[in-house]
Fold these 4 entries.
Entry 1:
Amino acid sequence: MDTTTTSSRGLLDTGDPSFRLTRVPVSAGLGAFVERFWMTSWDLPPGRSAAVTLLPHPCVNLVYDSGQLMISGVGRERFTYTYRGRGQVFGIKFRPGGFQPFLGGPVAELTDQVRPLSTLWGSSASVFADELAGAAGQDELISVAERHLRAHWPPPDTEVARVGRIVRALLHDRTVTRVQDVTERFGLSTRTLQRLFQRYVGVSPKWVLKRYRLHEAAARLAEGKGGDWADLGYFDQSHFIRDFTRAVGMTPSAYVAACARNEAPLSA
């Protein structure tokens, strides 16, 4: 059974081959709430800069960047990160719904927000950041992160598992094309489903479904396979083009042309 609740898609383009992305599975015992660790790194000549654009997943991340340890809520819009010189960013990607037990309140309060981890963990967040700053390499970064996660590990929450089952259906099952398909399959009213996602995920189930399908569309177009909008749950082509253009920033045909110019999405 595929237990993933996010894909490896969503990194739309990178204009420089020096940009590297690594994804690492979590250790046993952490997978109930955490999807994976990730690290980006780059090394550019002096005076040069480049950028990478992301179409975010419905996940909360803890991000260590430039000495700061931040809570990054679900971002609903595409995000461009500009980098220069030599550097790296380390992150912890929680499963959709997986950060709520750490937060204790509605994850929707974090949507489109970036906040210092210290607002949640107090002074221990500074200790966490200091230890990450002193870590020598990826393995040590992950060791530090796992130790601090375990120190703040919340009690079990069966709702996270239920959210995970629903999200897996949205991600993997192509017969799920509407929110009504979800309510019927999982025996939930639309209102209950909406409240569950507002508290645990931070965005609506309709948003999650659309985002996963747009990730898939971008990947297909980048690979030259074309965008079958009907297979992605759209009832008309104009609706698909409108949603894709708004999310990605260019029409599907323009995106194909950009990929052909070696401005292709990076997926790992």
Entry 2:
Amino acid sequence: MKPTNKRWIVATLIFLATSINYLDRSVLGVAGPSMMKDLNMDKIQFGVLGSAFFWTYALMQIPVGVLVDKIGARAIYAIAIVWWSICSMLTGMVRSFGLLIGVRALMGIGESPAFPTNVRVISDWLPSRERGIANGLFTMGIAVGAGLTTPAVAWVVTTLGWETAFLLTGAIGVIWAGLWLFHFTNKPKDNKKVNAAELAHIISGDAAPQAAGPVVKIRWAQMLRSKNVWAILYGLFAQDYLLYLMLTWLPVYLVTERKMTLITAGFYAILPWVCASIGALLGGYLSDRMIKNGLSAVRARRRVMATGMIVSLAIIPAAFVGDQLSAVLLIAASLGGMMFSNGASWAIVSEIAPNGASGTLAGMQNFIGNIAGWIAPILTGFIATVTGSFISALVIAGLIGGAAAVIYLVLLKERKEFTPEPATTSSTEGALQ
């Protein structure tokens, strides 16, 4: 019997959800110049507004990761995307700075389940040897939503106003929620469109150390004693620092420092995100290929993650070159390297997490990663205001990324850190206590 391919429909759905997720986040950056003018915001205030989303988004990561592991992805994702879509639309309706802060903070709560849910879905629906490309596919959604849509969003902002841009992009998520509820079940075995051959493929040949065997119950202190866990926590922080700096400030940087019009900046901004899309898929594909060729999952992911973060150092020379095209090309190389690392960074969660706790570990990782979302927008605005330039801000992002490459190579190793202890509950999901 030929296997069905329902798992790839599911992977495509989470790619689309991630694209919508980052489209809704990125509208703020594209609308930034117009909003700053209309609402009389300076760079520091705009940095605070860009950061407000991450205050709640990061804090919610650990609890939503636990909820995903306990309740399942189907209901949580549908509720989450409707929540954040409404908040995105509200961003275009309110005018005061205080209300904007509140709406963006509420939007952070709505978007918080996305990445822990994505990781749990891939862990449940794909074998280890296919998780790299699946994680690469969904992380490619970051680049598609944040960058490839930029010219269209810039056109809407320029012709119809920044308020309309938030209303139109926010409405897309509601449509996705209907598709998700129609196609997705929490477990492949419960999906009538998954045949026996595909189900056997999903559960066979899994290289993850904790993929088989009993659910593991583990305390937070034991999780945080893991060197592997700390390596991936810092690594995502470094990746997200660069990502959220670009997400919040790239259009503003191109308009104010590189002297482009908003429409021109929108088209120039495509290139970094195209490279980011390619990097995400390529990193996932190569790490999967190395696993199929016999390399262990952790070693394969580590090679890709460290290589990508070395390439991300291109952001440093981007700060100093004089012409517009060279700056954009170097930014493109940096984002491409970061996303080359990013897909493997999410895939490795399933390889090192205790069985039944991949959503929780993904939430921990995303919590630490998104602390960068608190820092990068505000610090960048402050530096640009004080120094009159973005140079120092870009250099800092590069140095943080370079440190991640070193940490991956030094700390991330093949080791058995979590001792399986069968859960006393009859649940198949497990939990962290």
Entry 3:
Amino acid sequence: MIANYASVYLYTITHWGDLEYLQNQYWFDPLFVFTTSVVAALAQTFLATRYWLLTKNKFITFILVFFIMVAAGGALASGAIIVIFPQYKDRRKVTIPATTWLLMEAVTDISIASALVLELRKLKSPIKKNRSLVNRLIAQTIQTGTAGATIALAVLVAYLANKESNVTTAIAYCIGRVYCITMFANLNNRKIGETWSGSLRSSNVNPETRCERGNQERSDGSDEYSGIPVFPTALVYIDTPEEFSRGSFKTNPKQGCPDDPPPKQ
């Protein structure tokens, strides 16, 4: 953001009409390229890590990480060339690394989104609410994955169409902000995944486990059990054990499963 503001202010206000100043690229241009590449790599690594945690697929994860590194390398090379050749007449020297950077940014975003969508489509549930949550996760993944790719492709097309124009720079100023917004969107919507995960796992509990959980729920006086994964072995793990003391698991004689024998008097 500082690099963007400095560029606009110095070119259009402080040195407005100064043709000699306008012939060069200054510290804010390589700073913009470097910091944008870091922001993009962080956002993409977050999503690649999410894919790894979901699938444990080493091969696909390695490919995604490789794409991220190639895109970051292209950006760093572009920034270094701008530092070495700051004059606008030498802008063509950055064609290959800049093309590599922008193209790989788009490929990386699309690849991560595609991998996540394919994996999410494998998750099936007979419960309508769970299917709806999965569809929401898929839609969110597509939206956040294609946003950065769209801007990167727009910058690449504008650059290849006219390497002497600054229209490319104007579009490129948006790409870092887009990655920040998509990153925040993924962080803010994590509750969707937690709700779906807890709901899907709870639906697989056998009747005895459900009844035991109901007794615990009533004895504690609470009906909120978000984030409790229940596995087919009927083991129940609670994320916040401090809320359930040992005494809270005592069963009230008046409570129990429908098929339980009547309590002894």
Entry 4:
Amino acid sequence: MRWPVLILLLLMLALQYPLWFGKGGWFRVWEAERQLTEQQALNHKLEQRNAGLDAEIRDLKTGTEAIEERARFELGLTKPDEIFVQVPQKR
């Protein structure tokens, strides 16, 4: 009676192997879900960045305020009869 139980136990373990370690096994599914979660978080960050860049592009195309701001801070330009004063920050 001991041999049939042992044979059935081994057969059950042999059938369980593909479920846990096979091509579509649980361990690979868990790893794929983890990678998917990481990729979704990265995509969310990139979507937010793209939305900000899109808003800046639209502002540059339609409005003059963004262009004026960039000209002031990046190029140091001023309007006629305007005095530019820069206050250094303490470090």
